[in-house]
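Might I ask for a little of your time on a matter of protein folding? The record follows directly beneath this note:
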Amino acid sequence: MTQYHITAPLRLHYAVKLPASKSISNRALIINALSGSTTMPENLSDCDDTTVIVNALRDNPGVIDIKAAGTAMRFMTALLSVREGEEHVLTGTERMKHRPIEVLVNALRHLGADITFAGEDGFPPLRIRGRQLEGGLLDVPGNISSQYISALLMIGPVLRQGLTLHLTGNIISRPYIDLTLWMMRQYGAEAEWSDYETIAVSPKPYQEHPFYIENDWSAASYWYEMMALSKDGDDEICLEGLTDGSKQGDSTVRYIFSLLGVKTIFGTTQEDVPTTVTLRHSGRCVPRLEYDFNSAPDLAQTFVVCCALLGVPFHFRGLSTLKIKETDRIEALKKEMRKLGFVIYDANNSELIWNGERVEPDMEAGIDTYEDHRMALAFAPAALCFGALRINNPQVVTKSYPHYWEHLKAAGFGIKS
């Protein structure tokens, strides 16, 4: 087992070029492929999750191993189902083989897809025989992963009848659905909400379109966390490549962190123009934070760690998808936060609560990461409060932020293995 020993700097004055958005990169690759374009989108992410899609599209192997990339599994399942005349087996890590995908497979089968489970029913690996699909009307639960919904939407323009997607029940992660629709329209698709719970996609093919990918607001969240936890009121962090009015759902991080004493200053607010965002202390922090992460569940780990370390009790809702991520993030957070001395409770498989209860910290064994990049990314800033921290299997960050440890070193953190 690899373990990093992380020590914190006394001051934070650093400008970081954030990685390109994984969410946008992965959608751009699928839509770009469906458009028939021979050129790649610009500023693609170099993270693991994007690289597996790039390799699959470039090499077109019979067996596609997407490793631990959940986004790639869902998006490639839909894409391969409409690639006429091709047959593929889509597989991944052992954890991936236990991540459910039956809802997406059944939805695609309803549209005419030829997909069979090559292992355990309901889970990868999948055998997919591509064909022209009819499309039409489809009902899917709105409380499933938004990546299922985005996967279906992105193939909508190439279906004979297009796609009318009716989302039933509570709709989660709506900003990620809106991001998908916006990107589809950039490539010439006609795709809109026709009412609060229905999306209509016309059978109008995509057009080739040059596309530049914004940097990642999810990655920005860990630097916001560092600013919130830093001790010096004059500290400053500059984040390069973000835009005001971003379509990324996790851009909401700037509003939530304003409640925890972090001020966001944009270099320019010109629409769709990447700029430098400067983070500074505002000096004001709420005494308690209640928030529904229904639209941005990937931010939950950041705020669980940050709020507890700031001594801000919290009640976070909208976390139902955390149990089927790279790991069961609800259980992982409870266990690892206890190592830091915080007793976190869960409720209804979708809520995390800290009421201020503390125990003696026990950090000797290090923070376990559970093959989950966001566990390493969110816990590392805790070194600013404890002076030092150990992270186990730190290489998991390559899933979304390959240069994270290099950037922390450049910002003044000590990192030794």
Q: What stands out?
A: The mean pLDDT is 95.
